[in-house]
Amino acid sequence: MELLNVKQIEKYYGSKSSLTKAIDDISFTVDKGEFVAIMGASGSGKTTLLNCISTIDRVTAGHIYLEGKDITTLKGKALNKFRREKLGFIFQDFNLLDTLTAYENIALALSIQKKRSGDPDTRIKAVAAQLGITEVLNKYPYQMSGGEKQRVASARAIITGPQLVLADEPTGALDSKSAKMLLERFNFLNRELDATIMMVTHDSFSASYASRVLFIKDGRIFNEIARGGDSRKEFFNKIIDVITLLGGDASDAL
């Protein structure tokens, strides 16, 4: 079932005398329960694309539909309500509040959304168990590893039951072991909880956990590949092949 429909969007920055076209006529759809990675060189437009979908940036032209609703027309309170109720955000630098424990950081998302359904304590402990962070719930961010902080941030993003989870370089600040653990949790959320995830990443290893990869070049979709029945290793090799076509090589930070 189609969840997201990005339709002929364009995004320009600058003034009339000096215009930069960050996104050039991009269209694609994402089904409910998909895990989609977006890759591309620095300056290709991949983060701008994610920012437009998240409504952080406004498109210059085109439309973005979530559950059939045109989100490019939302403003003011309606826009804030949409972000609060429909989206979950995971950032590279965690964005946790240092003065709150992991438990309190996760609970804050529920209190902001003013959700009344179910016992919040039960929900927080359940999502903590799913992400393997039960033991750090009473710790403050300075007492946690980078991987633990990112999993707390992930718990905060999904606790409200968003329609779409948007992750911007979520493994960028993590060591390889923590990154692998986070990505395996993403797979669990996607497979077991039917979470729809869109992840911007420069890392082929991270992208290989997704079910589909969109490659962005010069603000346009250059290619896309779906994992299908491939193993993660086979999919990783296909991702490397496309990166080579993009003009990089396997060691490039795409």
Structural class: alpha/beta
Question: How are the strands ordered across the major sheet?
Answer: 6-7-8-3-9-10
Total strand count, please? 10
What's the story with the biggest beta sheet?
A: 6 strands, mixed
Helical amount: 25-40%
Q: Low-confidence parts lasting 5 or more residues at pLDDT below 50?
A: 249-254
Distance between the termini: 31 Å
Q: Count of DSSP helices?
A: 8
Q: How many domains comprise the coordinates?
A: 1
Overall 3D geometry? globular
CATH overall fold name: Rossmann fold
List keywords for this structure.
Rossmann fold, six-stranded mixed β-sheet, 27% strand, four-stranded antiparallel β-sheet, alpha/beta, 254 residues, disordered C terminus, globular
Task: Give a short overview.
The chain is α/β, with parallel strands linked by helices and 254 residues long. Helix content is 35%, strand content 27%. It has a single domain (2-245), classed as Rossmann fold, CATH 3.40.50.
Structure description:
This protein has 254 residues and is α/β, with parallel strands linked by helices. It has one domain: P-loop containing nucleotide triphosphate hydrolases (Rossmann fold, 3-Layer(aba) Sandwich), CATH 3.40.50.300. It contains 8 helices and 10 strands. It has helices at 46-53, 76-86, 102-113, 120-130, 146-158, 176-192, 204-207, 232-245; strands at residues 2-15, 18-31, 35-40, 61-66, 69-70, 87-90, 164-168, 197-200, 212-217, 220-226. A 6-stranded mixed beta sheet has the order 6-7-8-3-9-10, sandwiched between helices. A 4-stranded antiparallel beta sheet has the order 2-1-4-5, covered by helices on one side. β4 (61-66) and β5 form a beta hairpin. The longest helix has 17 residues, at 176-192. The model is unreliable at 249-254 (pLDDT under 50).
